Amino acid sequence: MLMLQFELLGTLGCHLCDDAEQLLIANLDMQSIAVEVVDIAESEELMDSYALRIPVLRHRESGHCLDWPFRAEEVVGWVESLR
After folding, report:
1. Would you give the DSSP letter of residue 69?
2. CA distances from 58 to 9, 52 (A)
3. pLDDT digits (tens, 9 = 90+) for 23-80
4. Domain boundaries 8-81, CATH class
5. Residue 6 in contact with residue 36, Cβ under 8 Å?
6. Is 23:29 a contact under the CB 8 Å cutoff?
7. Residue 80 burial (10 A CB sphere; 0-12, 13-18, 19+)
8. Residue 33 in contact with residue 60, Cβ under 8 Å?
9. Which region holds residue 63: left if phi is over 0, alpha if psi is between -120 and 50, else beta?
10. Where does residue 14 rank: exposed (0-12), middle (13-18), buried (19+ CB within 10 A)?
11. Where are the domains of the chain?
């Protein structure tokens, strides 16, 4: 099975970003999914695109995004739809 690649876009000190990361860890099969935490503060382009939206889970291959707030059921269903 091909491992799905995601980025969790956020920034340091963002409690919602921390909440989103914990939700992903608790509800996704991290054996078949890779999630890289990306600090948008390190890129002007990412800041312009996502500063008002974080946390955002972005599928690396397609660029599709799931914006916060998302519940466990939503994120699991969304990830499964990308398989």
Report:
1. S
2. 7, 15
3. 999 999 999 999 999 999 999 999 999 999 999 999 999 999 999 999 999 999 999 9
4. alpha beta
5. yes
6. no
7. exposed
8. no
9. left
10. middle
11. 8-81
Alpha helices in 1-83 (DSSP H): 15-27, 44-50, 72-81
Angle at 50 between CA 36 and CA 63, to 5 degrees: 55
**Is residue 59 classed as helix, strand or coil in its secondary structure?**
strand
- Look up the pTM and report it: 0.94
Cα separation values, 70 from 43, 48, 76, Å: 24, 22, 10
Q: What sign does the dihedral 37-5-77-1 (CA atoms) show? A: negative
Measure the CA–CA gap between 53 and 69, rounded to whole angstroms: 10
* Contact predicate 34/4, CB 8 Å: yes
